[in-house]
Amino acid sequence: MSLRESDIKQGPVCTTGSLGNYLWNDLPDPNKWADCVHCGMCLESCPTYEQTGQEQHSPRGRVHLMKSVAEGKLEINEDFIDPIFACLDCRACTTACPADVDVGGLIEEVRGQIRQAIPLTGWKAFVSKFFLQGVFPHPTRLHALGNLLKLYQKSGLQKLARKTKLIHIMPQHLADMEAILPEISEPVRKKYKHANVIKAKGETKHTVALLTGCVMDVMFSDINEATIRVLTRNGNDVVIPQNQTCCGALHVHAGDRETGRELAKQNIEAFQHVDRVIVNAAGCGCMLKEYPELFRNDPVWHEKAEEFSRKVEDISKYLYDTGYEIPKAQLNTRITYHDACHLAHGQGIRQEPRAILSSIPGVEMVYMPNADRCCGSAGIYNITHPEMAGAVLKSKMENVPEDVELISMGNPGCMLQMAMGVLKHGRNQKVVHTVQLLDWAYQKEEGKEDRT
Amino acid sequence: MRGKGIHTNDPHIQALARIVGDEKSILYKKEDLLAYDCDGFTVHRHLPKAVVFPKNTEEVAAIVKYCHEHNLPFLARGAGTGLSGGAIPLNGEVIISLVRMKRLVSVDLENRRAVVEPGFVNLKLTNSISDRGYYYAPDPSSQYCCTIGGNVAENAGGAHCLKYGVTTNHILGLEVVLPNGEIVEIGENGIPDPPGYDLLGLLTGSEGTLGIVTKITVRILKNPEAKQTVLAYFDRVADASQAVSDIISAGMVPAALEMMDQTAIEAVEAAAFPVGHPKDIEALLLIEVDGISSGIAEQIEAILHICRQRNVREVKVAQNEQERARWWANRKTGFGAMGAISPDYLVQDGVIPRSKLPEVLQQIQQISQKYGLRIANIFHAGDGNLHPLVLFDAEKPGETEKALAAGSECLQACAAVGGSITGEHGVGIEKKEEMRFIFNDEEIIAQTNIRDVFNPKNLLNAGKLFPTPGRCVEVKKG
């Protein structure tokens, strides 16, 4: 995030107290940095420290800076903002930390302070407002955007743009993104709009609700379809509450905690009548589980958020815990698994997806070194920090084994980024969601399809 | 990551930036420098003048030469995980960060040696050669992130130095930039014990006061054929201590022989890698034996027997590699785990004769009561290397001073029974006054005279390792 002095405008001052130079509402939690003893065990886990070797871009360095603002030693200014917004929020440091310091949570809280202290102005404010407030929270607008993309792909415009090199007028990182856009199909939210419940095949053992996600349902509705098929095949009735919305993770990562809270409230209400909320996007799942963090100063909603977050589960862990049918068809493929940060570090889910993949007949799992290293996607980080995201992606791709056909993972952001990695680094793997592989095996068993 | 160009009129910053080539290789703004105001020792803090990130030996030499000519104090820093403050810029130094010099230069399995740059992380060496059956023995608990350059500076030890020795026993050669910018090679390409003075021995553990190491030739070892790990819970510290003495006097040399007391157990169990240790025991021992397969079972049997004779409550052998790894992660993250039960801690590093363990632990307990501060003990019991961790809250007025005094008294207790004030963490800032427990003024001056041969202007890492000179200093200079 680079800001010119002229971009800086002071926001409204907090009325409920302050903490050093943190003057705005929703203050950071001092207990979070109190646990850090500056031991440095986090350093090697941090992708931005790996790239820069600079400690202000390391977890303990960032914690030190954030604490220094509370102690009045630093002010919130451009030079403080840089390391705080350059964090990928990948949570690898939380895994590495012997004292369980919640660096990711702190970063998000402090970004909230920064955005109140120095609201975005100019085109950055426009872009941020357009997408974060204007599009993601509104399914119809998001679907409209999806339709535009579909039109772009289907009408021949995409071909034309690529052929005429018109695409090159975009900045390189956006052109790279365009190149890996998945084929857009109909969102499941829309498709099942009038279905109260999608019935389990055979006997109903559980009823679960599906978070369809915002980007997921537009870009990867086929994964949502696969998720529904896998759930129903394993005895789950699936409901898709229509008043659900975007999880708010992108907003919270960007420091817009207020919108994050509004979205959280809407989701908490949308899912209040179900016992289980199944999520197939690691970033969203992690956010839903962390809703209580957003309501630290609001006891009523905090309790509701606590209750809600206990209902949330990632699809892979849910299937693993409640039992799923081992497919009988052989897939005969060599795959490797990438840990999405918000699955492995954010939710502690590592073994379950691997166990599911290994259980599919004919799937040979190939070990990926540093599988839980961030790929650089990190929400919209690859758009805000393309250079760093590219460097992180390069390190990631160096660890992807050569001799595999598929790279499996549990997060749509990672899927886009890894697909870009495959393209940019001249590799030939396909990128798939864990649940898709299971779905393909079931489909093959049913004689419907053979997609590998 | 941010705007281009150097935005300062300071001619030194501009000159240093020219040496390292670009604005991404130098830090000089307060917001960036603040992350460098201390290392793993957080009691003293000071801002550096700048941090520079050289890419090779020549750049290091050029930076040093510039500082030498312009009388700018400077020091070297690796991962900054040191526990005695060796990388803290007390005098507003230019910090020469070596973390971007992190290549594994070469591996020579036939001659069992490897060459690394100083910023290469300790554990990465083992990870790079383990598939071929080799490893690098010195294993400080911070090995996940500490650099081998830093290990050389501090002569770092680790859990397994009981059997395998500390860093100095594994260094075969060094490339060093002297404090005037001259580049020298020490060590005859891995030939053991070259004629003349043992300069490798002198430089290793000199805490960055004699030169800056830019290339290191280390010894690598073949993985032991077999390895077994035992965890033993004792109701009484005295029994655990006695078991340690018994094991050693039975003629065994375990690869590691570690102890944790009740407060330490409370911390590791509240932190990221709990094992499920009982909270009501006074001490646990973590014992590892390794070597050729035959004989391991007998050693384990003998160790179990000794533990039972010393009233062990429960003793078990790790059933698989995962269990062993879990026990070690629990132990090796012990210092950082203190964060889970205390806002701050100060770790001491005394060494005592093994036979004095129960007595000194008793004294540490009394020191804890005297100052009203909790003290946890995690230590390499096998070689008598204690790590009392004084727990305190720096935000409470006066508590930091109390913690420092309590730590100092722990060291005094070690020195009084014929021990030493540091086993592996170095003296740094933290223990420089305590050097007087071991050395008199003449002995200290004899050592600073050696430093002056290498570092005559005392620009390199000044104010570390030795106490502020007493009255005799005039005699020396006169």
TrEMBL record, chain A:
Q: How is the cofactor bound?
A: Binds 2 [4Fe-4S] clusters.
User: Where is the 4Fe-4S ferredoxin-type domain positioned along the sequence?
Assistant: 26-56, 77-101
Q: What is its EC number?
A: 1.1.99.14
Q: Which reaction does it catalyse?
A: (R)-lactate + A = pyruvate + AH2; glycolate + A = glyoxylate + AH2
InterPro entries, per the entry: 4Fe4S_Fe-S-bd, 4Fe4S_Fe_S_CS, Cys_rich_dom, Glc_ox_4Fe-4S, Helical_ferredxn
Q: Which species expresses this protein natively? A: Anoxybacteroides tepidamans
Q: Which cofactor does it need?
A: [4Fe-4S] cluster
Q: Which GO terms describe its molecular function?
A: 4 iron, 4 sulfur cluster binding; glycolate dehydrogenase activity; metal ion binding
What keywords would UniProt list here?
4Fe-4S, Electron transport, Iron, Iron-sulfur, Metal-binding, Repeat, Transport
Record's function text? Component of a complex that catalyzes the oxidation of glycolate to glyoxylate.
PANTHER family per record: GLYCOLATE OXIDASE IRON-SULFUR SUBUNIT
Q: What is this protein called?
A: Glycolate oxidase iron-sulfur subunit
From TrEMBL, chain B:
- FAD-binding PCMH-type domain segment(s): 44-223
* E.C. number: 1.1.3.15
Cofactor(s) for this UniProt protein: FAD
PROSITE patterns to which the protein is assigned, alphabetical = FAD_PCMH
The record, for Pfam families, names:
FAD-oxidase_C, FAD_binding_4
Top EC class, one word: oxidoreductase
A GO molecular function assigned to this protein is: FAD binding
The answer to whether the entry has keyword Oxidoreductase is yes
Give the stretches traversing the membrane. none
Q: Which UniProt keywords apply?
A: FAD, Flavoprotein, Oxidoreductase
InterPro entries attached to this UniProt entry? FAD-bd_oxidored_4_C, FAD-bd_PCMH, FAD-bd_PCMH-like_sf, FAD-bd_PCMH_sub1, FAD-bd_PCMH_sub2, FAD-linked_Oxase-like_C, FAD-linked_OxidoTrans_Type4, Oxid_FAD_bind_N
- Tell me which domain of life the UniProt entry assigns to the organism this sequence originates from: Bacteria
Protein name from the UniProt record = Glycolate oxidase
Give the originating organism.
Anoxybacteroides tepidamans
